[in-house]
Design brief:
CATH superfamily of chain A: P-loop containing nucleotide triphosphate hydrolases
Strand order of the largest sheet of chain A: 6-7-8-3-9-10
CATH architecture of one domain in chain B: Orthogonal Bundle
Structural class of chain B: mainly alpha
Radius of gyration of chain B: 22 Å
CATH topology of one domain in chain B: MetI-like fold
Distance between the termini of chain B: 66 Å
InterPro entries (chain B): AA_ABC_transptr_permease_3TM (IPR010065), ArtM/GltK/GlnP/TcyL/YhdX-like (IPR043429), MetI-like (IPR000515), MetI-like_sf (IPR035906)
Keywords (chain B): Amino-acid transport, Cell membrane, Membrane, Transmembrane, Transmembrane helix, Transport
CATH class of chain A: Alpha Beta
Order of helices and strands of chain A: EEEHEEHEHHHEHEHEEHH
Pfam family, one (chain B): BPD_transp_1
CATH superfamily of one domain in chain B: MetI-like
Subcellular location (chain B): Cell inner membrane; Cell membrane
Membrane topology (chain B): Multi-pass membrane protein
Distance between the termini of chain A: 38 Å
Number of strands of chain A: 10
Largest sheet of chain B: none
Order of helices and strands of chain B: HHHHHHHHH
Oligomer: heterodimer
Number of domains of chain A: 1
Number of helices of chain A: 9
Largest sheet of chain A: 6 strands, mixed
């Protein structure tokens, strides 16, 4: 199996705050890894390191066989990695001045130098796939939150990434829209996409994840198959966390 | 003896053709200066938020110097002072355009800085995460959004600069106020003449306001 992400003894600080502590983690191709933990535990920071949106201070990080050096390292590797890694944000971060179609066409045209025709065809195919083919010429602000997040997923997929990062993709959504976004993600997992997902949706984690990782204060304290982690957590911190989030 | 003042419509109307000769100069100085000021503003505004201090520092120095000194002193310095340095006279039109350019450029730099910094950093992150370079992210994602937010303050600066040109009568450039002063020297109809001069400024600034409102509305429609 191919390892897409390899972290070894990775440490990250925000000033004096030690936010990631000796992280060892590998993600295999086709694997869906769900990262859970309390807010402030470092789980978002962890996946933001994978595409270099956060720098780390020490250790080793390899993504898609490219070494991403600490402290902002080499720009070359960084830009190669970003072409292969898609990201979906909590706040969608769609481009408000562009239509949905143009949001999706931008990166293929600017980065891959795709022609307008090809980029447009890709955009339409992906919008159909996420179930909003008829909204292509609207602006993001004209769509619901759930639709916007599905556009954001399509936008990331347009670069044909080898790995998708999801940073709390449903946390900013109204409850009735969470399902439609999770459905798209579930489909994506089924088709074999490699995914790292930070989420509070425990039902989704249990159903879709190949592996669940629990982070506490910047450390991976539990890691395993979802059934094992949810039904039989070994670490008492995991037990405490799960009893808090699963109680209601 | 009873004091009586009558607005002399005849005098006002007669003054119009002579005063109107100042309009092209007022427009040339303000819009010529603003066009250059806009370029300076983009340049120094972006430099002032650059990561490297040796690009940032000179830009901030420029902005602070030209915002912190009166434009009247700036234009006097350019027209009367600079010739000593360069060893030859500067014509008043050039001096006026240069003063508006440098002065508005400093203010527009701040408008540019504010506009760019007002865009959520999630926009930059989204661009970078898609594989766009920093330059591509800036020009295709950040700048178009920032520019829309810059339109109202830019319009404001345009109006301020148009009115600032009235000070340049001191260097003898034949703009609106200068024309008024010359006309009054011969007719002693100060009230009527300055009244007409004021109306002419108002006509220019109101036209600009109107155009900007149209531009803004078009911009807003697509966000």
């Amino acid at each position: 199996m191919t390892q897409i992400v390899k972290m070894k003894g990775m440490n990250k600080y925000f000033g004096k705050l030690h936010v990631l502590k000796d992280i060892d983690l590998t993600v295999e191709q086709g694997e869906v890894v769900v990262i859970i933990g309390a807010s402030g535990s470092g789980k978002s920071t962890l996946i933001r390191c994978v595409n270099g949106l956060e720098e780390y201070e020490s250790g080793v990080l390899e993504v898609d066989n490219q070494k991403l050096a600490p402290k902002g390292g080499n720009q070359q590797a960084l830009s190669e990695i970003r072409k292969e890694v898609g990201m979906v944000f909590q706040q969608f971060n769609l481009f408000p001045h562009l239509t949905v179609r143009k949001n999706i066409m931008l990166a293929p045209m600017k980065v891959k130098k795709a022609s307008q025709v090809v980029a447009n065809a890709t955009a339409e195919r992906l919008l159909d796939r996420v179930g909003i083919g008829n909204q292509a010429d609207k602006y993001p602000s004209q769509l619901s939150g759930g639709q916007q997040q599905r556009v954001a997923i399509a936008r990331a997929l347009a670069m044909e990434p080898r790995l998708m990062l999801f940073d709390e993709p449903t946390s900013a959504l109204d409850p009735e829209m969470i399902g439609e976004v999770l459905d798209v993600m579930r489909e994506l997992a089924k088709e074999g996409m490699t995914m790292m997902v930070v989420t509070h949706e425990m039902g989704f984690a249990r159903e879709v994840a190949d592996r669940v990782i629990y982070i506490h204060e910047g450390q991976i304290v539990e890691e395993g198959r979802p059934d094992d982690v949810f039904d039989n957590p070994q670490n008492e911190r995991t037990q405490a966390f799960l009893s808090r989030v699963l109680a209601h | 003896m009873e004091f009586q003042f009558q607005f002399d419509w005849q005098a006002a109307i007669h003054a119009i053709p002579f005063l109107a000769k100042g309009i092209p100069y007022t427009l040339m100085i303000s819009f010529g200066g603003l066009a250059i000021g806009f370029v300076l503003g983009i340049l120094f505004g972006l430099l002032s938020i650059n990561k490297s201090w040796f690009l940032r520092w000179p830009a901030i120095a420029y902005i602070e110097i030209f915002r912190g000194t009166p434009i009247l002193v700036q234009v006097l310095f350019i027209f009367y002072g600079l010739p000593d340095l360069i060893g030859g006279p500067i014509d008043p039109l050039t001096a006026g355009i240069a003063a508006i350019a440098l002065n508005s450029g400093a203010y527009i730099s701040e408008v540019v800085r504010g506009g760019v910094q007002s865009i959520d950093k999630g926009q930059t992150e989204a661009g970078l995460s898609l594989g766009l370079s920093r330059t591509q992210t800036f020009w295709s994602i950040i700048w178009p959004q920032a520019f829309r937010r810059m339109i109202p303050p830019l319009g404001n600066q345009g109006i301020v600069s148009i009115k600032d040109t009235s000070l340049f009568s001191v260097i003898g450039v034949g703009e609106l106020v200068r024309q008024g002063q010359v006309y009054i020297a011969n007719t002693f109809t100060a009230f009527e003449v300055y009244f007409v001069v004021a109306l002419m400024y108002l006509a220019i600034t109101l036209t600009l306001s109107l155009l900007l409102r149209l531009l803004e509305r078009r911009g807003v429609a697509s966000v």
